[in-house]
Amino acid sequence: MRDDTIEIERIIIINNRRIPKLGNIFYSNTFLYFRDQVSLFLANSLYDEDPDDAAMLLLDLCTSGFNRRLILELRHANNILADQIADRAVQIFMKIYHKCLVRHHAD
Amino acid sequence: MRDDTIEIERIIIINNRRIPKLGNIFYSNTFLYFRDQVSLFLANSLYDEDPDDAAMLLLDLCTSGFNRRLILELRHANNILADQIADRAVQIFMKIYHKCLVRHHAD
């Protein structure tokens, strides 16, 4: 996530008791919106599986603990860990969904 | 998570710029500590797999978006969704790790 996205999320966490609807608006327009975009993309490639579930799994695997670290402003020393988590996320996602993926191209 | 745990995390997010070490201490003593406990438990049951990775996956699957919702104080209407997410977390975890689990009892 970009630094200003984190900054906005911090501001909303800090202020959402004074303006109670803020958290819901933020959540719907960022996290749920992004999940829906991934879901739309996956809907073309999956059969017999709920694309929302698949999108949620992919996002959970990719963000693995990062959101909490970013909100608490704990930085990684380098990008190696991020690359490892991305590789692992794709491996796990493909293990779960490889039988349900529509092949758009000939093998 | 319990309400007071959420409250403490909110207070730390709000104050960790004034007391920069706070976030790190909190993260190590809660999230990492919990992951290590799950990892110790799994280490007895897994072979040929990193128990830290397995613990991380199980926690990611179980917390799926919940932490963000709780910190933003968005509540679910009931526990049905939580039960569905728990069932799904275990199904996915077993799909990934069923070949690596040591059987402690005769089948």
State the gist of this model.
2 copies of one chain form a homodimer. With 107 residues, chain A is mostly helical.
Protein model, in words:
Two copies of one chain form a homodimer. The first copy, chain A, is mainly α and 107 residues long. Chain A has one domain. Chain A contains five helices and no strands. The first copy, chain A, has helices spanning 3-15, 21-43, 51-63, 66-71, 80-97. In chain A, helix 2 packs across helix 3 and helix 3 (51-63) runs antiparallel to helix 5 (80-97). The relative contact order of chain A is 0.11. The mean pLDDT of chain A is 85. At the A-B interface, helix 1, helix 2, helix 3, helix 4 and helix 5 of A face helix 1, helix 2, helix 3, helix 4 and helix 5 of B.
